Structure formats: C-alpha cells, structure tokens
Amino acid sequence: MKSSIIHISDLHFHTYPKNFHELKSKRLIGMLNSIFRRARQFPIDRSEKLVEKIRKMKCDHLVISGDLTQLSLESEFSLARKTLDPLLKNNSRVTIIPGNHDRYVSQSLSNDLFKKYFGEFFGKEEIHLQEINSDWIIIGWDSVHPNDWFTASGTVRRSTLIETEKIIRSFSKDKKFIIVNHYPLTFPANWKLDHFHELYNLIPVQKWVLRFSQIRLYLHGHIHKNWVHQLSRESGEELLLVNSAASSAIPSSEKDSSFHQIEIDGENLNIKQIILN
Ligand SMILES: [Fe+2]
Q: How far is the CA of 67 from the centre of ligand 1 (A)?
C-alpha cells in the first residue's frame, strides 16, 4: 500500500509580548533572540508559502514535530493555527507534537496553550497514536517541559517508553512504526553536543528505539540543519532518522532541504528532500 507523509518542523511563529505579565525573564532573552535573528529567518510570508506548497503536494498525512512558536505566547499559537489552518481540515490525517519553545515558561495544566490550539492533533493522553495505512502506525511523543533560562532540554519519560512498548506489542509483528519526537537521536559527524539543548536521556532513548525492529522511522526537528541518518541494528532493517527543522526559514548554505516527503510503498521508505525557495 502506498502513502505519502509530509514532515515539517520548527516553524517558530513569532509575535511580541504585549504586557509585563508576558515578559517573564526567559521570554525576555527569547525575545531578544527573536528580534535579532528569528524574525529575519522566519518572516510570516514564508509560512504562508510553505502552506501553499504543501497544499499542492501529495500528502496523506502531515507531521509537524514541534516548535510552532518562539515564546509560547497565545498570540503566536493563534497565528500558527490560523496560518496552518488550510492543512488541518482532517485531524486523522495530521500529527502535531510540541517542541521546547511551545512550553517556554511554566504554564498551569489548565492553561496549556499547545493543547488549547493543537491538542486535537495529539490527543488527550501522553502518547499520540494514528494509523497511516494498514501497515504503518505513527506514535507521537511529548518530551518537552519548561527549564531554566539557559536550558532547552527535554526528557522522554519512562512512562512514555513503557506505554509505547505496550502499544507496539499489542499489534502483530509485521506492523511498522514511525516515532515522532521533537529532539534528535543522532547528530552530524564532528557535532559538538550541547547537553543543555538535547534530550537528558538521549542515549537510553536511542538504545530503546533500536531494540524494536518494528520502529523503522524517527521524525524530529529542533536543530536547524536538516538531515537523513541511518542507524543499523544487530538484526532487522536499519532505523531512518529524519530532521525537517526550520521548514519555513529562508534557505541557507547550511541546509540542503526545507522539509521532507516520505513515500511509503509497502515495507519500503523513500525520503525526498524538498526545498522551499
Ligand atoms: Fe526545539
């Protein structure tokens, strides 16, 4: 069976805080970052252009792997929802998970703005589960939490891994799984790892994912340099890891794709790099 997935990430919709209450200290630093860098890299018309491009492509399922916003302001979530709306007509064909910028500062559980604006594409529980076709299933993770001002790390909770294992084991062995999580499990050669920017439990999670040969694909964002990596296993097919971050950003020499189209044909995966000019 053939299906096509479009994977985008880290769109960083941005507006500016309107009052002192919104200007918590972490937001102040984030705002300066936004003013000097992100606002130039992510002009709003680029996001509109991205939506138009995807509307014209074959897409059975859209995946957005977090960082919809810059400072997790309500006005940013609202702008993101409004701009992306043409792609969000059928929630069984869309998976959206949060990134660290979407929980930038502590919010009470009753005021989780990611859930308010995009919760219908994740679901009420800890894990998002969505069938792509009769052979392939998406599992989305929420691994983000607020940190102090210099930290952007996340954690895949033990309960998330236990629940995911239960789900995988509840299906027949020939089902294939795609994990969607904001944080990468691999990095380019000679990458200088910043432990305050990545998963706290990076190595245990990487080992955990490799244990399950049914997990064939891992989709993420977070680092704004895109790639397709492979990790081999002792037995079974290799794991493909796809980074589609900063999909709406102005192209740069550091990135050779804006996002990816993943063609599923039976058991096979074909990953295409797409540039948004
Ligand atoms: Fe991020």
A: 6
**Ligand 1 mean position to 29 CA, how many Å?**
15
User: What are the pLDDT digits (tens) for 33-58?
Assistant: 666 677 778 888 999 999 999 999 99
Q: How much distance in Å is there from the Cα of 234 to the middle of ligand 1?
A: 31
Q: Is the pLDDT of residue 26 over 80?
A: no
Q: CA 220, 186, 258, 103: dihedral to nearest 10 degrees?
A: 40
What is the 35 CA–ligand 1 centroid distance (Å)?
17
Residues linked to residue 120 through DSSP beta bridges, in sequence order: none
Residues 143-173 pLDDT 10s: 998 777 678 899 999 999 999 999 999 999 9
Structural domain tally of the chain? 1
Range of the domain at 259: 2-274
Give the 3-state secondary structure percentages of the chain, helix then strand then coil, rounded to 5. 30, 25, 45
| Ligand 1 center to 140 CA (angstroms) | 15
Distance 9 CA to ligand 1 centre (A): 9
Q: Which amino acid, residue 64?
A: I
Segment 167-215, tens digit of pLDDT: 999 999 999 999 999 999 999 999 999 989 999 999 999 999 999 999 9
Distance 90 CA to ligand 1 centre (A): 26
pTM of the model: 0.93
From the CA of 222, how far away is ligand 1's center (Å)?
4
Residue 24 belongs to domain with CATH number: 3.60.21.10
**Pick from 4, 8, 128, 129: nearest CA to 60:** 4
151 within 8 A of 196, measured Cβ to Cβ: yes
The CA 91 to ligand 1 mean position distance, Å, reads 23
